[in-house]
Amino acid sequence: MSLARVAISSCVSVSRQVIAGSSHCLRGLASTSVVFNQKHRNKMFIAEERGSPYAPDYRVFFRDESGPVSPLHDIPLWADRARRLAHMVVEVPRWTNAKMEISLGETLNPIKQDVKKGALRYVSNVFPHHGYIWNYGALPQTWEDPRHVDPGTGARGDNDPIDVIEIGSRVAQRGDVLTVKILGALALIDEGETDWKLIAIDARDPDAERLSDVADLEKVRPGLLRATLEWFRLYKVPDGKPVNVFAFDGEAKDAAFAHRVIDEVHEFWRALVSGEAEASDICKSNVSVAGSAHRVPRDQAAAALAAAPPPAQPQALPDTVV
């Protein structure tokens, strides 16, 4: 049994096909997400779940029409570079709590649930919110270089792809690849590191044409920016951590500023995947990056996916986050 989620990743049209036979399928067993984008009409990315959701073996791998790919290295940053529309890989759908993220150290960089001190991580509910309050994920082909001290924040990069919050009306699915319009950025300082949070909206959202910058947020999504700042400040407090702080006194920077940050972290990624920069804890294997010393044959990538466990029933969520 499988659930196929099909979306045209452009502003023109959206189609959806569901191939399913039970309510369990609708919870995500062996689900695939196929995304086409306007610029690369023949390109598609399929999210393929393996293992048991909410268990240590759970992974979400990605494929294109030729086989497995890395969402970090092989999905292009730009869906439409001329229009400055970016691809976003959704790690955590809105209203969910499981802290999922692209696995930097594993071959093909699948999405997995983060583990801390031997336990799977869940974000606590912070009143009045439930889980993440937007679709949350990352831009592919970006890297916040920990060797680089940002002159504006005074802190080093956090060694991750750059994070994105997507504020559209649709609740995404884990593994969706969206085409998003970048509106601005917040500079969270997380345990002494710069942790950029880009603010974006799905280019297909009915409000996308009304939003061009963070200055438009209050009239189109009133209260959202204030709630976002509150959420990021408080979400670790229930776990005994201090309140988070922001650079720039919590000011949301505009779209032009955000695009400069994206260009910078894309260049950091280029240095990483080319071998000019070193990060021993990041798997740089890819199937498509021209000039990369870490490019591997397609059959090697296919073997890595074939070795993953088969899809299985999800585990029960903790009572604290249901």
Automatic annotation (TrEMBL):
One of its GO terms (biological process) is phosphate-containing compound metabolic process. Pfam families: Pyrophosphatase. Its main location: cytoplasm. Residues 301-322 are annotated as: Disordered. Keywords: Cytoplasm, Hydrolase, Magnesium, Metal-binding. GO terms for molecular function: inorganic diphosphate phosphatase activity; magnesium ion binding. It comes from the Eukaryota. One of its GO terms (cellular component) is cytoplasm. It is found in: Cytoplasm. Gene3D superfamilies: Inorganic pyrophosphatase. Its cofactor is Mg(2+). Belongs to the PPase family. This is Inorganic pyrophosphatase. The gene is LOC106119653.
